[in-house]
Amino acid sequence: MKKFILMCFVLCFSILVFSESISIMFAGDTHGRLIEEIDIETNIKRGGAGYFFGLIDVLRRKYPESLLFDTGDTMHGAYVNDKFKGEPQMLIMGMEDYNGFVPGNHDVGYGINNLIELTDKYNVNTICLNMINENDKSPVFKEYDIIDYKGIKILVTGLLTPLTNLSVTAENLKGIKILELEDVQQRYSQIILDERPDITIMLSHNGFREDELVASLFSPDIILGGHSHTVKSRVTYYGKTRVYHAGSYYRNLGHLKIDFDKKIKKVDYNLYAVTSEYLSKKQNVQEIVDLYNEEVEKELNEIIGYSEKDIKKSDEDISELFIYLCTLLEKSTESDFAQLNNSGIRDYIRKGPVSVRDIFNIFPFGNMGVVLNVKGKDLLDDPWILKYKDIDADKIYKVVTNSYLAEKNDTFNLKGFDKNTLEFTIRELVVNAMKNQL
Fold this sequence. Notes:
alpha/beta; Purple Acid Phosphatase, chain A, domain 2; 5-stranded mixed beta sheet
């Protein structure tokens, strides 16, 4: 009987010692949108750094043992960050003690050196397994990090989509290479052998569909994903790997409560909406947002035109908005033809007054304007060029496009001539053209 009682005591003691829980919060693809969106009809505010970190404070009070992660595309895409090259975002991330951040493809939008300098300046724990320096093959950031939590060893690493090599201009990624996922599989296996972690977390900026490949190659316990702006309110399993995606623009926060005894026993997941309906802003974060926003607010609120109707976009077809923007670019540069990438058009023009902010929301990434000459035949032969007007094969066209297409499109990069990068961004060219129409 005494032996039985002793065994029960030992068992209960083991459960008390080794059965633990930890809280994990994450988001990604915030794209520098520090300012909340307002629904005009309901006056409900959604997103924004103030409300987002207000929610984090609520959860940290409820779950003191918490980790916070970001899955990339964090600081590029809203003018309050663009004007200061991402500094407001990195300042807040450093202040809020993120446990890990994997860069996204847009985080090198101001150049790789800018990203390195800001993460160093604000002590942001940046982790990426497949980003290396081309000259000596050394990692640009930490390959992984180890979090020791009550004797439980948690390994955190990050992967950036290799498509970054194609989607980012060579100048912004100068001296840096993003390795294919398969090329770092062996390195990851060696890290696992060396560290022998109890739990593995992968910060993946590859997209929801691509995370199936990430899971099959690396088999982490948990993937916290970004890049595709996917919103998933429930866990997705790829093999044994649990995959979570929380959307974009500070609109949601993913929260995991993990119970474990050396290995994961149970995960409870909630996807919280960031909204003024039930949240208050975190004051010191909002003060930083207001400080930076004050410098750009007057500029962004300037009315530059008026639209009689909504002018909509399309991600695939030649839309009314695409033609409207191309026509404005032609006028502003006295060009014969204009070309934009549909995926770079991120908003649309609404009926009523049009402000500078509206145009900056349409073109959030600040690509420079480029003018070059192209043979009509070459324009006609390229299936990727959207022909919104008739083109004469025998004519030489003065074309205006953005710096991304000027480099990545073979017709513009290899067959275009007399190329000239302008001193204005595409969005500045559109703003100036609309002002001239007033």
